[in-house]
Amino acid sequence: MPRAERERQMLDAAVRVFGERGYRAASMDDIAELAGVSKPLVYLYLNSKEDLFTACIRREAAALVAAVRAGVRTDVPADRQLWDGLTAFFAHTAERPDGWAVLHSQARSGGDPFVAEVGAMREEIVAFVTSLIAKAAREAHEDPGPTEREVAGLAQALVGAAEALAGWANTTPSVSAKEAATTMMNFAWSGLGNLMDGRRWSSQR
To answer: Considering the entire predicted model, what is its pTM?
Structure first.
């Protein structure tokens, strides 16, 4: 078997074991057995348990970012781009629940190096969402539009809400990617739409 294919097989097994058990409870013996290889071969290819977990995070993060970017068309309005991105996000996390568990929960409990790896992925997605919201603000042509600081905060809030909703959708039977994306649009875009129109919530009301 070619090295790249063998390594993919090991990473597939590792993502499944790490996703189900977490970094600390997972064993290299279990990963090797699931991959159908010897434990020394896993060490030969991927050096250590820490390096293996890091490789899983990087692979799953790259796949998620690529899926979201590929799902967004650039020739449609900003709200449609956001819809497409959310649908791609929820479809990907549903198709790869172990990979999402590695990124969303297991890496965060594994320690600082793993948290930093996931943080880099999250920053890339937040930057992408920030660009979509900024585009929506430009298209709205309303005064006053959202400030750069507001756009950045909205992107952080939207990504955080989508992450939480993906966790719920993956553990709730029969929730489709489109249903999850619709929930997010109903939750977020109506509020964003009001902001683009210059209407802001005030505690003085």
So the answer is: 0.86
